[in-house]
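=== Structure Prediction Worksheet ===
Name of assembly: unnamed complex
Input type: mixed (protein and possibly other molecules)
Chain count: two
Listed entries:
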Amino acid sequence: MDERIVEHAAVLVEWSARIEAGDDVVLAVAPGAHDLAVAVAAELGDRGANPVVTYTSGEINRAYLRAHDDEFDENPAHEHALYENADAVLSLGGGRNASAMADVPGQTRSTHATAREKVREAYMNTDWVSTVHPTRSLAQQAGMSYEAYREFVYDAVLRDWEALAEEMSGLKERLDAGREVRIVGEGTDVTMAIENRTAVNSTASVADDSHNLPSGEVFTAPYGTEGHATFDVPMTVRGKRVQDVRLTFEDGEVIDYDGPAVIGEILDTDDGARRLGELGIGMNRGIDRPTDSILFDEKMAGTVHLALGRAYDACLPDGEAGNESAVHVDLITDMSDDSRLEIDGETVQRDGAFRWEAGFEE
Amino acid sequence: MDERIVEHAAVLVEWSARIEAGDDVVLAVAPGAHDLAVAVAAELGDRGANPVVTYTSGEINRAYLRAHDDEFDENPAHEHALYENADAVLSLGGGRNASAMADVPGQTRSTHATAREKVREAYMNTDWVSTVHPTRSLAQQAGMSYEAYREFVYDAVLRDWEALAEEMSGLKERLDAGREVRIVGEGTDVTMAIENRTAVNSTASVADDSHNLPSGEVFTAPYGTEGHATFDVPMTVRGKRVQDVRLTFEDGEVIDYDGPAVIGEILDTDDGARRLGELGIGMNRGIDRPTDSILFDEKMAGTVHLALGRAYDACLPDGEAGNESAVHVDLITDMSDDSRLEIDGETVQRDGAFRWEAGFEE
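=== Predicted Assembly ===
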């Protein structure tokens, strides 16, 4: 087995999920992630954790959802009990066709997601971590050769996470002390409140409430958004290719959008879908290009992203509810050119370079 | 998709597992059974059942078990809760290497199985059904081409189960009314008592307490066995190839055997391992040859099998304990030639043909 797969498994189990003896773990395996699952299983055995292995297949989900009449049972007991009793969920993405669910109506997906809200909550209450195994399908999605894509994934995943965590904590401090963020770029001039919110250092470790591997972003839960934003990083949302979506905000809500119908469907999911749940700032310099995968794209150094929908509890004051929604859809804008990010009027990033980096110009 | 896969899924969900709207189902998928899983998912969606999809991989289990120190936690809470809350488990076998776990020590496997006894009980308390999707690995195990093996599997699975159930009930009535069974063939002349025992129609449906697809056997729990029997159908027992095992019985117990060492090991397990727990009579005419898979071989029409060890409760009068043992090992003998099966002196089957079939000669 490729030594990098073994290292990936070790980073996932040790750094990211902090698995210990006796932990009850759900290991969720996509059809193309078998080899990584074998390596992760060895790590779990070595640590004395207890895996239940699930299979996450777009083709199986598609067949199920298309055959269903859309009157979904709420929170099936067995699925809910599985996650309620799990300490961690390790989700290994990497399918064989990124468009496997392209012909499942968006309405069906949202109805299904809404019916399973408590299952999702139980899942989110575990020490969950999502990662991907490089597959040919993901390489194709990224417009890259398989060999080059594997290099790309391991450059992003096998980092010095402790050093990056240290750098990120500087940005977190600025955000935590700040009241307002302004993002300015081509087609974008948007402000949002962040006062009384706590930024999360997404260090790819559950110890920091960070649940993606790779990670490398600092995010918070904004509110009161005003202005407009254009998201120029191309991506696939629910099977549809989207680029240059433009959202107009007033009083914290999207009042107008320009983009494909799928964005309208998302905005119509529920009230929370029209508000932002996240402002994220990419800081992973191992990710050097968009690959049409949110797991990587949103962490790319020199980008920021805004998510419609659900906010993460970790950003909120104790006991306070943030934006609630059945959806959480990230949209990304490139900040590497003619752009700036301000906190309370101070430029913290210009043209992709942070204030503390070489090359930053006021 | 091959129409037979769709039919297989329909038989499994409708006839075998009797899935209804609202059922919480665990769909357990082996690495080679993906296509059948897609078809089953559509059936589950159509019926409004709720699947959790698990992944049963010998390679993942092997990696986990070999890395573990063998001090297994008892009955992990998440796994136990999953099955405790499930109405049915549909297990789709069909791996890519039947020997994937060959280098996991037997001691490790039994220690692991013992630690998970309550998980197993919860699983067995569901309406579970085991079937297989034809894979190249299973074709290899059967010594058949992939194409021929697929024909074989669908011939066995896609039967008129209602008609077969009807035929089987005739044999069950004779067995239930009978006092003694005698089996005569080359190297075999053995009698056993069946008075006061109830035969089970294994119709491949949980409605009849039958949990295999394919099925097609009638079985009961004999006692007081006398004589000798030779089992000429080749099979793999605990990883060892065995054929032409000969057992000699006196007063219900094996007093002598001729065969490989693994048979001696089994007989020495405990007292019950020297007595029979099952007499099974194969009635599935879709199964025309042994394929080194007990799921198929023991149901083959024109064979009978005797199992050393544990008896099934369903065959026993209420409250009465049958033969008890830690093992249940089936051995099969071909009755298609120069053989007969008698109940109370009446020949019920001769040379593979039942009394009620064309071609039967007194």
